[in-house]
Amino acid sequence: MKPAKVDVQPAERPAMENWLWVSGHGAHPARDAQADPLASSQGSWTLTQPMYSAKELDSVKVVDRPPETVGDKLAHGVVKLLRRSFDFFTGYVAKEIPKEVLEQKPIPVAELRAKRDILTDKQWLLRIILLESIAGVPGMVAGTLRHLRSLRLMRRDGGWIHTLLEEAENERMHLLTFLTVSQPTWLTRALVLAAQGVFWNVFFLTYLVAPKTAHRFVGALEEEAVRTYTHCIQDVESGLVPEWKNKPAPQIAIDYWRMPADATLLDVIRAVRADEATHRFVNHSLANLDQKYDFNPFALAEASPEIRGSVPGFTREESAEFARQTQAKLLGKNEEPGKTVNRSSSSALHLASAAPRCPTMAWRALRPQSNQPRTAAIRIRHPPPAGQGMKHSSACQVPAPA
Ligand SMILES: [Fe+2]
Ligand SMILES: [Fe+2]
């Protein structure tokens, strides 16, 4: 008996204008966002980031981590060189405007711009778009390389990959947010294309041979990003960028950072700066870890925004203590998740050395690296359901990032 004939014809294809696709300029103009919630790049289903409180946004500071090792100095030097070159070619200025000028009503913005004492809104935007298009590269390169390493060695990664990819995603959202303010010219697009081609490959090779230095480089780069956004915020607050003074926040930013509907572009820039401070903190902390054996302390919980905004990064001992406190919270042996605890790093060393060795997590015996007292605060990001999946093995109670 012959088998029934199977219809192998593909389903009827929808007309081209009804396909779900997103062009480089946002959602396809033919799609109706009201009729089809999947048709738009806007909406609460897109990527989100926790909203910062005003206190958390204010806690972000410009901080520099002095380089210690040869790799640190190299990374620091390259970042400074890149910054100076970039400042020169984009005409960046960071002059102190006298108080008496700022107190004039109205502030002579046109005159200051003519003298090239301040940046225009277009100059700020050009700089931000170029920076953000580059900033999205390192996390993706590092995440990809660690992903491939995990596949190649058939070994767990220790929770680094997701944090790195999340950073890349966050930077891409920064770029997409500012693109809604104004579209770049073809010259800007060409610059982004060229810079991406060079930077991806250089960072890829650097991360292959010296991942610690690569993370330190990103940490130093983010120090500069915090510095630049702090300058931008001060200019907008002072009235030196009148076009942005009360400009409403783009919808994509309201969705992403869960902002109130009446948020302004200035609120968005402050949130972006807090994100950059997080990248600074995370990358400097990761650079202090053993790249092969240590797990990522931020895989299951993140430090409070105040810590991320004001400390360059955790030392390896502080990361160990942070992981230990996270473990205690997730196992229900400590305070409730979401509540902040403070503990000095001296007890961290004690706790770390007293911890059971965990061969899979390979959180190895720690060496003291710093005598500076510092506190660590924890905010559990994703508290798991009670009794689920936190015991890595009977010998190791440490939460088990993959
Ligand atoms: Fe960014
Ligand atoms: Fe960043």
Automatic annotation (TrEMBL):
Q: How is the cofactor bound?
A: Binds 2 iron ions per subunit.
Q: Does the keyword Secreted apply?
A: no
Disordered, as annotated region: 382-402
Task: State the family named in the UniProt similarity comment for this chain.
Answer: Belongs to the alternative oxidase family.
Q: Which cofactor does it need?
A: Fe cation
Q: Per the UniProt record, which EC number(s) apply here?
A: 1.-.-.-
Annotated transmembrane regions? 124-145
The residues the entry assigns to the signal sequence are: none
- Please explain the role this protein plays, according to its UniProt record: Catalyzes cyanide-resistant oxygen consumption. May increase respiration when the cytochrome respiratory pathway is restricted, or in response to low temperatures.
InterPro entries tied to this protein: AOX, AOX_sf
Task: Enumerate the UniProt keywords alphabetically.
Answer: Electron transport, Iron, Membrane, Metal-binding, Mitochondrion, Mitochondrion inner membrane, Oxidoreductase, Respiratory chain, Transit peptide, Transmembrane, Transmembrane helix, Transport
Write down the top EC class of this protein: oxidoreductase
Q: Would the keyword Cytoplasm turn up in this protein's UniProt record?
A: no
MF annotations from Gene Ontology: alternative oxidase activity; metal ion binding
Record protein name field: Alternative oxidase
Where found? Mitochondrion inner membrane
